[in-house]
């Protein structure tokens, strides 16, 4: 205590002498305020960035100094027109000065303070002024000034909800990791339910809750591709005791959980679109390459296993150990776009909590729940080698699994190919694979059961390819490509609006188009809606990020239903069948 008292007395004496030297009118900090939008609506949110230009050879204390007696730097806004929702102060530096034995936490040079402001619902249309104050204490290596305040005024126009709003100063705000408040709808909010459940539960109950949510993800169509992949891999990779198959299955699930957890935490804490990783061409090519590598192993070119030296140290053979874990890592990325109200609620909750470890463990248990059925599927698939008369016919089955994996590689690479190529590539492959299995691959044809199965499988592939190549005219709502002008015009005309956010890598998006939006009753129900589609495939592009930020989009698919007053009344995340979707649409007034 005596030490702090002596330092405080020294600072006060130094402040008095230095104030006399520099004068009371010296501005040690100059500030300038930037906004994220050129206009704002009543009850809307806006980001601001305050640039602190600190006088050379001086510093100011951080927002949270190490010692209680030091004056912190604080943002202060006193106005009836806006409230502070959140503040992001810059990362301070720890520097040792002559007046203190311990490091002092400070800002110097050029720094930015970020904040989210919520404009008052009663704010009047027109130009408003928001006073900005930064309280601080400036010091140099030898002395400190008396506490002071820097002032600026943010002038911004308040407009109605029919006036277009444009983002500005993005080069500044791209460097500030601060997110708007998650959007609230006028109907039941699943995000709040998940958040409140997790908040009111202990860690163990929360992990169990999330695990069960992961299990429920297996009911969503987007995980279906994992089934043939799992069967195809373990059907040719395992042999021997069930215990060995169990170990390989556990490693497969752990690999899946690890990747899913990392993807989930990164997207949650960064605010990026969940599953957007799959729109990166390098990631897509990487996944396709893994499938090709695994497929070639099905044809006997090589065997994926742990290095011999590692196997020797482990005390025995563990064929496929490395391959199983590596396969699981890849499947984690494949499963990443599987979203729904539960996952979006968890993403929002983790982002708001801001605890990286908590976020990781939540998504890890979510992925364990997702992967648990595939543990048993791996054991069942691997045990196929222990069936009676295992021999050449099993090598034939491996060839079939190899073609399945080749097909999955083509499926995942299709979104980055030219549309003409993408349209024909998979059907041509299926026809070629079917012909090869029927007429060229004679392996184990003397086994009647296998021969029948192979023939049926080949015919089904050829039939599926023919179906894919036949152009089918499907009815659909009168979709228009989204633009801000069309959206604002629809609001101005008091139109009811539906906005469909989709991506080429999103399986439930395709199911919505094929099964729900093609239904005649749904089309009729949407006939008096302005129907807009937003392509979010290139979800890291500047234009897509602007749209994502505007509508608070976390994952695909997302469908917004907006009433004639411009209010969002329903947000749909995931596949909904035609009957349920028609009911939702008819409830929009």
Explain what you see:
A hairpin with an 8-residue loop joins strand 7 (93-95) and strand 8 (104-107). Helix 3 (190-200) packs across helix 10 (341-353) and helix 6 (242-270) crosses helix 10. This protein starts with a helix and ends with a helix. With 589 residues, the chain is α+β, with helices and mostly antiparallel strands. The protein is built from 19 helices and 17 strands. Strands 13-15-14-16-17 form a five-stranded mixed sheet, with helices on one face. A four-stranded antiparallel sheet has the order 1-3-9-6, with no helix packed on it. A four-stranded mixed sheet has the order 2-12-10-5, with no helix packed on it. Helix content is 47%, strand content 17%. The longest helix has 29 residues, at 242-270.
Query: Can you tell me the overall shape?
Result: globular
Number of strands: 17
Which spans have pLDDT < 50 for at least 5 consecutive residues?
12-24, 182-191, 310-319
Overall pLDDT: 78
Output the radius of gyration: 30 Å
Domain count: the total is 4
Let me know the largest β-sheet. 5 strands, mixed
The share of residues in helices is: 40-55%
Order of the strands making up the biggest sheet: 13-15-14-16-17
Strand content: 15-25%
Structure class: alpha+beta
Number of discrete helical segments:
19
Distance from first to last alpha carbon: 67 Å
């Amino acid at each position: 205590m005596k030490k702090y008292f002596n330092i405080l007395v020294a600072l006060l004496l130094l402040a008095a002498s230095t104030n006399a030297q520099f004068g009371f009118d010296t501005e040690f900090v100059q500030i300038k305020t930037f906004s994220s939008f050129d206009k704002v609506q009543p009850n809307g949110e806006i980001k601001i960035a305050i640039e602190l230009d600190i006088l050379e050879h001086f510093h100011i204390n951080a927002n949270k100094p190490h010692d209680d007696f030091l004056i912190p730097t604080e943002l202060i806004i006193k106005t009836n027109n806006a409230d502070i929702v959140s503040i992001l102060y810059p990362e301070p530096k720890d520097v040792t000065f002559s007046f203190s034995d311990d490091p002092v936490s400070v800002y110097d040079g050029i720094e930015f303070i970020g904040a989210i402001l919520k404009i008052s619902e009663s704010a009047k249309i027109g130009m408003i002024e928001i006073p900005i104050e930064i309280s601080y204490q400036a010091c140099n290596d030898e002395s400190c000034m008396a506490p002071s305040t820097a002032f600026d005024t943010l002038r911004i126009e308040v407009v109605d909800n029919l006036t277009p709003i444009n983002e500005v100063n993005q080069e500044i705000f791209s460097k500030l990791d601060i997110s708007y408040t998650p959007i609230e709808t006028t109907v039941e909010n699943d995000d709040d339910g998940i958040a409140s459940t997790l908040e009111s539960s202990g860690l163990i109950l929360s992990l169990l809750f999330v695990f069960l949510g992961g299990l429920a993800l297996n009911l969503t169509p987007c995980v279906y591709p994992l089934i043939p992949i799992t069967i195809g891999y373990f059907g040719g990779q395992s042999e021997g005791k069930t215990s060995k198959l169990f170990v390989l299955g556990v490693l497969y699930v752990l690999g899946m959980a690890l990747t899913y957890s990392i993807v989930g935490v990164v997207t949650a804490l960064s605010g990026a679109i969940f599953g957007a990783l799959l729109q990166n061409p390098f990631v897509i090519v990487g996944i396709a390459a893994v499938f090709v590598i695994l497929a070639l192993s099905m044809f006997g070119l090589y065997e994926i296993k742990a290095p011999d030296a590692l196997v020797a140290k482990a005390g025995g053979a563990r064929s496929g150990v490395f391959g199983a874990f590596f396969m699981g890592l890849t499947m984690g990325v494949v499963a990443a776009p599987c979203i729904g109200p539960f996952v979006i609620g968890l993403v929002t909750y983790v982002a708001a909590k801001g605890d990286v470890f908590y976020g990781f463990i939540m998504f890890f248990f979510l992925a364990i729940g997702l992967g648990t059925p595939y543990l048993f599927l791996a054991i069942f698939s691997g045990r196929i080698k222990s069936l009676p008369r295992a021999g050449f016919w099993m090598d034939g089955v491996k060839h079939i699994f190899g073609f399945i994996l080749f097909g999955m590689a083509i499926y995942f690479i299709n979104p980055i190919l030219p549309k003409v190529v993408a349209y024909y590539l998979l059907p041509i492959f299926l026809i070629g694979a079917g012909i090869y299995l029927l007429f060229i691959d004679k392996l184990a044809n003397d086994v009647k059961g296998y021969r029948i199965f192979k023939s049926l499988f080949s015919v089904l592939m050829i039939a599926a390819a023919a179906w894919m190549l036949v152009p089918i005219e499907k009815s659909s709502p009168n979709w228009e490509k989204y633009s801000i002008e069309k959206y604002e015009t629809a609001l101005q005309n008091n139109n009811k609006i539906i906005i469909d956010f989709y991506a080429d890598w999103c399986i439930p998006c395709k199911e919505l188009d094929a099964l729900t939006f093609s239904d005649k009753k749904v089309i009729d129900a949407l006939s008096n809606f302005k129907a807009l589609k937003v392509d979010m495939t290139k979800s890291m592009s500047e234009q897509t990020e602007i749209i994502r930020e505007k509508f608070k989009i976390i994952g695909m698919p997302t469908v917004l239903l907006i009433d004639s007053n411009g209010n969002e009344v329903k947000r749909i995340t995931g596949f909904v069948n035609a009957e349920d979707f028609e009911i939702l649409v008819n409830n929009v007034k």
